[in-house]
Write a structure and sequence with these properties.
The complex is a heterodimer of chains A (about 325) and B (about 260). Chain A has ten helices and 14 strands. Chain A is of the alpha/beta class. The longest helix of chain B is centred in the C-terminal third of the chain and has 16 residues. The relative contact order of chain B is 0.17.
C-alpha cells in the first residue's frame, strides 16, 4: 500500500527553518488547576513526534491548544509558522485533528461521516479520494454501516480518514490507541508510518510507553511538564545507573526483601522479573550482581539471577519521575 | 474438586443471536493465583467475565465460581467476589470515607467492621489525610488503588479486575501490582484483564482468547517457549492475526 507523496509548503517559508510546531513557555490553567506548567519544545517538519505519559499529565490540553481549540493562559505556540491564537482561521484548514474520544456522528454512515467532514472543509470525498484511499479502502466495504455499529479498529480508521480528508499539512492525534488491543495498536502505528512516508508531520499522544519506539522523537509528559525530550534511543541511553533484572523463585517476597537491602536505589516489579538499580552509581555490575545474589540466596530464595539489561522507556520515565525537580528537564530541542 | 479451585469453567458458551461470543471455553483458576485474562477487542473476554460474575447466564456449559454454580447460584457468587471496572468503580461526589462506608453497607458489613476496615485501609494506602476528600479530587492512580481496596473490603475469595491500570503512570502501575501480589499472597484469587501486554508477564498464568475460544493458556514463560516468541506481545499478535503478519486491515471480526 502506498500513499501519494505530498509537497511541503513548510520548508519554503523563509526564516521558519523546518519546524512545524514551535512552543515557548506554554501555560494553561483551569481555575486553580495548572494543566500545563511552562512547556517549550519544537517539532520538525515531517517528524513523527510523540507525547508519552499517563492520564492527567496535560497531553490533551496541549494538543487542544495546538489545534486552536483552547487558548493558552501564557506563552506562545506556532503551528506551520502561524500563531495558534492570532492565526486561528488560516491555520484551521491546514491541520488535521483526531480527538481522543470517538467524535464522529454515530447515526451517520461511514460514507456520510466522511462526506460531512469533507464538505465542512469545502472539498469532496471524490476530489480527495487518492489521499484517503490507503486507509479508506480498508473500511469501504462497510460504507453504509452506521458509525456506531463499527468495531473499535474500524472506528479508528474512519476517524483517521475524516481527519485527513481535507489534506492537512500536519496531523494531531490524541491517544488514538487508548483502550485498543495490542494487535490493533500495532496496525494503527503501521498506518502512521505510511502517512509519515508522505512527509506529513504527525504529532501523537499515548499513555503506552512501549509506543515511544515508533516515534522519531518523544517528550515524556507528567503533571504539566516535560520530563525529557529526545529520540527514544537517546532517552534510554541516558539512564545513568546500571540496571539489573533480578529473578528469584518468589518475586513478590524478593521485592519485599530487596526493599530492605542497603544497596537498593530503586526496585520495581517488571513482569516476571524485578528491575534493580544500586545506590552506588559507579560500582561494577559484576560486583553488584554478586552481592545481590548472595543477599537473596542467604535469605532462602532459589533460582536467583541478576543480569545487566538496557533501560526501557518505562525505566527512564520512572527515573525522571523520581528525580529532583531541577534535574527533571533535559534540554528540549 | 472445588477445594483447590477458585474458578472452574467447562465448555462455557454464550450465543447472541447468530453470533457465538464465547465458544466452549474450559479453564481452571487455582486459589491464590493471579490469572491474566487476555484477548483482542471483541474476542469474548467481557462476555466471559460477565458470566463468571453472575451478570449474564451462559447459553450452555457450566462454571463454578468460589464453589457456586453460575447458572443456579448467580446471587450466591456475589458476596464471594469483588469487582473493579476500569470505567466506574467509585462515586466521585462522595468522599473517600463515604465511598468505603457505602460499599461496606451494600455488602452487609456491620458499622464496626466498616469503621475498623476503613482505618486499616486508609493507613495501609497512606490515605489518612485524604479520607475526607472527594474522590473526584484524587489523582487517577490513587483512585484506582482505592477502588481496588474497596473491591476487597468485604474480603471476597476472588477479585475480578477489568483493565485496572489503564492510563496510570508507571510507578503507580507497579504499586498497583504490589497490591495485587499482596492480595494473592493472602489467599485471594485475582483474575485481571489488561491491554498492556507487558503486564501479562506479571501473572502466574494467562489465557488468550481468540474469536470466542481460548487460543493459548499457561504460564507466560511456558507460552513464550511453546510459541517461540520473545514476549507475550509477539505471541498475542501471532494468535490474534495468524494469517496477517502485521498487515493492517484485518480487525473486522470484532462484531
Amino acid at each position: 500500500m502506498r500513499m501519494p507523496a505530498r509537497t511541503s509548503q513548510l520548508t519554503q517559508a523563509p526564516g521558519a527553518g523546518a519546524d512545524a510546531v514551535v512552543v515557548d513557555g506554554l501555560v494553561k490553567r483551569f481555575g486553580r488547576t495548572t494543566a500545563l506548567d511552562g512547556v517549550s519544545f519544537s517539532v520538525r517538519a515531517g517528524e513523527l513526534f510523540g507525547f508519552i505519559g499517563p492520564d492527567g499529565g496535560g497531553k490533551t490540553t496541549l494538543l487542544r491548544i495546538l489545534t486552536t481549540l483552547l487558548v493558552p493562559t501564557a506563552g506562545t505556540a506556532h503551528v506551520l509558522g502561524q500563531d495558534v491564537v492570532k492565526g486561528l482561521w488560516t491555520l484551521r484548514p491546514r491541520i488535521g485533528y483526531m480527538p481522543g474520544r470517538f467524535s464522529l456522528y454515530p447515526d451517520l454512515s461511514v460514507e456520510e461521516n466522511l462526506r460531512f467532514f469533507a464538505s465542512v472543509f469545502g472539498t469532496s470525498v471524490e476530489r480527495e479520494y487518492e489521499q484517503i484511499a490507503p486507509i479508506y479502502t480498508q473500511i469501504e466495504a462497510f460504507k453504509d454501516r452506521r458509525a456506531a455499529a463499527l468495531s473499535g479498529g474500524m472506528k479508528q480508521k474512519l476517524a483517521l480518514c475524516c481527519a485527513l480528508v481535507h489534506r492537512p499539512e500536519i496531523l494531531f492525534l490524541d491517544e488514538p490507541t487508548t483502550g485498543v488491543d495490542a494487535v490493533s495498536r500495532r496496525e494503527f502505528w503501521d498506518l502512521l508510518d505510511q502517512l509519515k512516508a508522505t512527509r506529513l508531520t504527525i504529532v501523537v499522544s499515548t499513555p503506552y510507553m512501549d509506543e515511544a519506539k515508533r516515534c522519531d522523537r518523544v517528550a515524556l509528559v507528567q503533571r504539566g511538564r516535560l520530563l525529557a525530550l529526545d529520540t527514544p534511543g537517546a532517552i534510554t541511553a541516558s539512564f545513568d545507573r546500571p540496571l539489573l533484572a533480578v529473578h528469584a523463585d518468589n518475586r513478590y517476597r524478593a521485592l519485599l526483601a530487596l526493599r530492605d537491602y542497603p544497596g537498593t536505589h530503586t526496585i520495581y516489579p517488571f513482569g516476571a522479573v524485578l528491575h534493580y538499580t544500586d545506590q552506588r552509581r559507579d560500582a561494577a555490575v559484576d560486583q553488584i550482581a554478586g552481592e545481590l545474589k548472595t543477599f537473596l540466596e542467604t535469605r532462602g530464595f532459589r533460582d536467583v539471577r541478576a543480569d545487566r539489561i538496557p533501560a526501557t522507556i518505562e525505566d527512564s520515565f520512572m527515573a525522571f519521575m523520581g528525580a529532583p525537580e531541577e534535574d527533571r528537564r533535559t534540554g528540549a530541542a | 474438586m472445588t477445594g483447590e479451585l477458585a474458578i472452574e469453567a467447562r465448555d462455557l458458551t454464550r450465543v447472541f443471536g447468530a453470533f457465538t461470543a464465547v465458544n466452549h471455553i474450559t479453564f481452571d483458576v487455582r486459589v491464590g493465583e493471579v490469572f491474566g485474562f487476555l484477548g483482542a477487542n471483541g474476542a469474548g473476554k467481557t462476555t466471559a467475565l460477565r458470566m463468571l460474575i453472575g451478570l449474564l447466564a451462559p447459553t450452555s456449559g457450566s462454571a463454578r465460581v468460589a464453589g457456586h454454580d453460575v447458572f443456579s447460584q448467580s446471587e450466591a457468587i456475589k458476596p464471594d467476589i469483588g469487582y473493579m471496572s476500569q470505567r466506574f468503580s467509585l462515586y466521585e461526589d462522595l468522599t473517600v470515607r463515604e465511598n468505603i462506608a457505602l460499599y461496606g453497607g451494600i455488602y452487609g458489613l456491620t458499622n464496626r467492621e466498616i469503621r475498623e476496615r476503613t482505618e486499616r485501609m486508609l493507613g495501609r494506602l497512606g490515605f489518612d489525610r485524604a479520607a475526607n476528600d472527594l474522590v473526584r479530587a484524587l489523582p487517577l492512580g490513587w483512585r484506582q488503588k482505592l477502588a481496588f481496596s474497596v473491591a476487597l473490603l468485604h474480603q471476597p475469595r476472588i477479585v475480578f479486575l477489568d483493565e485496572p491500570t489503564s492510563g496510570v503512570d508507571p510507578i503507580t502501575r507497579r504499586q498497583f501490582w504490589e497490591l495485587i501480589y499482596e492480595a494473592a499472597a493472602s489467599g485471594t484469587t485475582v483474575l485481571v484483564t489488561t491491554h498492556y501486554m507487558d503486564e501479562a508477564e506479571y501473572c502466574d498464568r494467562i489465557s488468550i482468547m481468540v474469536a470466542g475460544q481460548i487460543g493459548a493458556m499457561g504460564t507466560p514463560s511456558d507460552l513464550k517457549r511453546q510459541f517461540g516468541t520473545e514476549s507475550i506481545d509477539e505471541l498475542f499478535v501471532q494468535l490474534a492475526r495468524p494469517d496477517a503478519a502485521g498487515a493492517a486491515g484485518a480487525s473486522t471480526h470484532a462484531k
